[in-house]
Design goal:
This protein has a single domain, classed as Cytochrome Bc1 Complex, Chain D, domain 2, CATH 1.10.760. Helices cover about 50% and strands about 0% of the residues. The chain has helices at about 1-40, 45, 80-90, 120-135. It starts with a helix and ends with a helix.
């Protein structure tokens, strides 16, 4: 009887673990999709739909071309620099073309809470993280 109960418990735990893994994969896919949407809306004008910095409608307006975002991992020893990306998008690491911390090129969207509520900053950080997760998917090998 004990081995039957033990097998049932192990089976239920396995199902629960698979369910959590599947849910996590779906959430990750959704985050990448949202990140791509936000990237295309806020970043592709300069960095281009491809992320290379050459095909954005505004990329030719700069004396120095926008950063090739597909090379971030390659330029960091093969590891995607998520925290650096988050810092740049949030405005913690100044990039002249992105504007000042007080007035980032994205206006109220990034670097500031989305609302005055308790989770306003968390929601803004989640948007930034989604963009970072999308960028991680377009890295050249």
């Amino acid at each position: 009887m004990r081995s039957g109960l033990r097998g049932t418990i192990i089976g239920l735990c396995s199902i629960a673990a698979l369910s959590v893994a599947a849910t996590s994969a779906i959430a990750a896919d959704e985050a990448v999709t949202v990140g791509k949407t936000n990237y295309m809306k806020y970043c592709a004008t300069c960095h281009g739909p491809s992320g290379t910095g050459t095909d954005g409608v505004a990329s030719r307006l700069f004396t120095k071309p926008p950063t090739n975002l597909t090379l971030l991992a390659k330029n960091h020893g093969g590891k995607f620099p998520m925290m650096e990306v988050i810092g740049i998008v949030r405005g913690d690491q100044p990039i002249a073309a992105h504007g000042t911390r007080e007035m980032p090129i994205w206006g109220q969207t990034f670097g500031k809470p989305l609302s005055d509520g308790m989770y306003g900053k968390d929601a803004a950080d989640a948007q930034i993280m989604n963009i970072g997760q999308y960028l991680e998917t377009i890295q050249v090998k």
